[in-house]
Amino acid sequence: MQQVALAFPAMPDSVAPARQRMVEFLSSSEVPPELVDDCRIILTEAFTNAVLHAYRGRPGRVYVELAVEPDGVVSIAVADDGDGWCEDSAFRQGGRGMNVIRSLAARCDVTRRENGGTEVRVWVVGAQDAIGA
Amino acid sequence: MLSAREAGDYVVIAPLGEQDLSNRAALEEQLRTLLSERRHVVVDLGDTSFVDVGFVRILADAAAYAAAEGIGFAVVMPSAPMTNPVMRMLLEHVPLGPNVRITRTLESAVVSVHHQRSELHALLAERLQVARRTAWTEAARTRRLTRERDLIVADLRAAMERCRQTVRKLDP
């Protein structure tokens, strides 16, 4: 399994570099382009939610973990050390990002981290088969 | 990055490259300014390589505002098959809504904006005609009521005069 862990400042200007690093990693892992396109959207929306909702103006970091499993399944985890946001708060602020993530992903888990932050972990597969929760 | 150029009575906004949280504020501000000045807007996505959900929402909100205010608003997207699968995929998942007129070319977008303006002018002309008809009807009604009031006042004065004459006869 190929994997990489990255960290970025929780700022709007970090969204594009995070996306770019992910595209480089997935491309070097020979992930099909159409799957990379799905991942671009997923990472962008999850990262945007972390920047907007996790730290409420305070400085912080957003962590990205990427993995490509031998069977081609891509997993993307976006986490923060913030105050903890839930999908409801993201929806209340007008975002539809989580809806889009769920529609593109085979599986999507949003969990509270032990340190109080939030983690969005998504699995993406080339076929339409969903991964059992 | 965002480029804007004036072309006659409309403004073409062209978001270049990738559009996400880092640069969506510029688009929102630009659209807000133009629409508050009642400028017709064409958003050209021909050189836009990526958009996020927030970007799509800004376009949908601007289009809804423009429709409510009678301002021309259209979006240009590359001809089918779309060259950008990411944008196509995202727009499929986050519909722009019924107010957004999507065209394949800038020329079509301009025609659409002018058509919307013509529709607005037709709507305003219709409303003006209705307002004039209402005003004329109300004026005629006012004149009729005034005449009726004058007749009633005259009748009352005549009745009062008859009363005075009767009183004078009874008590000279």
Blueprint (SSEs and pairs):
The complex is a heterodimer of chains A (133) and B (172).
Chain A: E1 2-9, H1 15-28, H2 33-53, E2 61-68, E3 74-80, H3 87-92, H4 97-104, E4 107-112, E5 118-124
Antiparallel strand pairs in A: 1-2, 2-3, 3-5, 4-5
Chain B: E1 2-7, E2 10-15, E3 17-19, H1 24-36, E4 40-44, E5 48-51, H2 53-69, E6 73-76, H3 85-93, E7 101-103, H4 106-170
Parallel strand pairs in B: 2-4, 3-5, 4-6, 6-7
Antiparallel strand pairs in B: 1-2
Description:
The complex is a heterodimer of chains A (about 130) and B (about 170). Chain A is an alpha+beta fold and about 130 residues long. Chain A has a five-stranded antiparallel beta sheet, covered by helices on one side. In chain A, a hairpin with a 5-residue loop joins β2 and β3. In chain A, α1 runs antiparallel to α2. The longest helix of chain A has 21 residues. Chain A starts with a strand and ends in a 9-residue tail after the last strand. Chain B is an alpha/beta fold. Helices cover about 60% and strands about 20% of the residues of chain B. In chain B, the strands form two sheets. Chain B has a five-stranded mixed beta sheet with strand order 1-2-4-6-7, with helices on both faces. In chain B, strands 3-5 form a two-stranded parallel sheet. In chain B, α3 links the parallel β6 and β7. In chain B, α1 runs parallel beside α2. The radius of gyration of chain B is 31 Å and the shape is rod-shaped. At the A-B interface, α1, α2 and α4 of A face α2 and α3 of B.
Structural class of chain A: alpha+beta
Bin the helical content of chain A: 25-40%
**Would you tell me the overall average pLDDT of chain A?**
86
Structural class call of chain B reads: alpha/beta
What's the total count of β strands of chain A?
A: 5
Fraction of residues in helix of chain B: 55-70%
Q: Helical segment tally of chain A?
A: 4
Rg over alpha carbons of chain B: 31 Å
Number of strand segments of chain B: 7
